[in-house]
Sequence to fold (220 residues):
Amino acid sequence: MAYLDLVSPLHKKTVRDYLARVNEIPKAEAARLAKQWGKDYWDGDRKHGYGGMRYDGRWRPVAELLARHYGLQAGQRVLDIGCGKGFLLYDLTQVVPGLEVVGLDISAYAIEKAKPEVQPFLQAGHAQSLPFPDASFDLAISINTLHNLYCHELDAALREMQRVTRKNSYLVVESYRNEEEKANLLYWQLTCESFFTPEEWQWWFTQTGYTGDHSFIYFE
Fold:
């Protein structure tokens, strides 16, 4: 297991006004809409989620880093758990022609609105019960997804992610290192259920037997 930071440069490009986020609309109302995982979350007002998720190539650098680090080649299989509209998977197919990609997401809306080139390879489902055989992927990834699960779901999801990969896996979750980052996370998030420090996340990895790579997103 290694700490592998491939996402924070992209995360830090967004300027966040944490106090405005928590004051512009009742947080409970925004969270209820977001957790329907429908149009409001993906393509509605920014107060309820992404504010309109459209492909713009921002995930291409992450795809290039993943391909280089894991030595991805044509014919290998990659699973994205929490794939959303499939933008990262699409970029992976452009970086590594011939790569086989599979995506799973809880949102039927996201899959319906997914990048057309990869939409046939996406399916609705839950991270705690992956509908794939053991060791069926060369790389399993999950970026900004597993922190949305309750503890019993998270336990199962980490075990499932470990189960379906032959060797490599990489996940990114939200975390905090101090009270300021904790407050910012609580102000900004809409769907997060697992609020853990890096040390607590490490406990989860050990508890569930997850041996893949990981990194954390901080709200500084």
Remarks:
- The longest strand covers residues 165-174.
